[in-house]
Amino acid sequence: MVVSMTGYGKAILSNEQYKIHIEMKAVNHRYLETIVRMPRQLLAYEDAIKKIVAEYTSRGRVEVFVTIEGLLQRTLQIDESLIQQYKKAIENLSGENHNKSIYNPIDLLKLPEVTTVSEVEQINDNFEELLLTTTKNACKQFFDVKCKEGGQLKKDLLERLTAIEACKKLIAKYSPLVLISYREKIQSKLAEVELTAVDEQRLLTEIMLFADRCDISEELVRLTSHLDLFNETLQLKESIGRKLDFIVQEMNREVNTIGSKANSLDISKQVVEIKNNLEKIREQVQNIE
To answer: Which of 65, 158, 184, 203 has fewest C-beta within 10 Å?
Structure first.
């Protein structure tokens, strides 16, 4: 199954106390690396979130962003004892004529350290279930996007494999002509220098040596095998990115050998076309999980 390593997903769930918003995105990576960005108070749930992500992806660098409303309850505390001390200090400085009625409550609250705001975690039994359910919903959307992109990648790969297959057939067609062309070229050269007595055995030996050097039948057989294996791998229901990358390397090796052995302009043109398609395939394979 072709699944892209890149993707995006999000989910929002809420109850009477919490509203949880989870977004996730992924880019290419050699292995699975999950990074969870969330409030420090929730670090105890990080492993549980990573396990859920691992159920939906096997490769890629995945970032998960967790935002929660209602997690912390803020409370205002007023230090009335400190206020009384401030009042007493003001009275001492003002003397007996000080009017106590002039105290403004707002001014008193502005005095240093009179008020403090504390945050208290509000985590109950329903919080973990809501958090993990939201994570699963985000992962499902994330996986759907990856599969959709994977479908587009598979379509492109199959089109390029078809093009390579067509080039391979043309190479197989041109290959026998290389030896015929070489023999005709030798005979033409001999005719130009007007040699009448030619050692046929020596000529035959030279042609056979050339035939051995430019024989690409084995490379064509192996290339066909690699193409078949690539097609079969695309149908597997498992992670296939690394395997496809290895097969592409093997195909490149066979095509390079064909290009170096075949003394034919027509074959060289097809080799260039195959290598161009293989490079595009290699780029696409890097995006497959």
So the answer is: 184
The model carries a pTM of 0.71
Chain Cα centroid distance, residue 279: 18
* Same domain assignment for residues 103 and 184: no
Q: Which two tokens stand for residue 246?
A: 């290895």
2 found inside a domain: no
Q: State whether 28 and 101 are in the same domain.
A: no
Contact yes or no for 171/258 (Cβ under 8 A): yes
Give the number of domains in the chain: 3
Range of the domain at 38: 7-72+122-146
Q: What is the DSSP letter of 4?
A: B
- Residues 65-86: what's their mean pLDDT? 77
Q: Are 37 and 64 in contact (CB under 8 A)?
A: yes
In three-state secondary structure terms, 19 is strand
The rounded mean pLDDT for the chain is: 83
Instruction: Tell me the average pLDDT across 68-96.
Output: 74
- The beta-strand segments (E) located in the chain are 7-14, 19-27, 32-37, 60-69, 72-78, 115-121
Interhelix angle 241-261/265-285, rounded to 10 degrees, is 170
pLDDT at res. 27 = 93
Kindly give the interhelix angle for 125-192 and 46-56, rounded to the nearest 10 degrees. 40
- Once rounded to an integer, what is the mean pLDDT over residues 83-88? 80
**Residue 37 vs residues 46, 65, 69, 130, 148: alpha-carbon distances, Å:** 9, 5, 15, 17, 26
Identify whether 201 is part of a domain: yes
Per-residue pLDDT tens digits for 95-152: 665 565 567 777 777 888 877 766 556 676 778 888 999 999 999 999 999 999 999 9
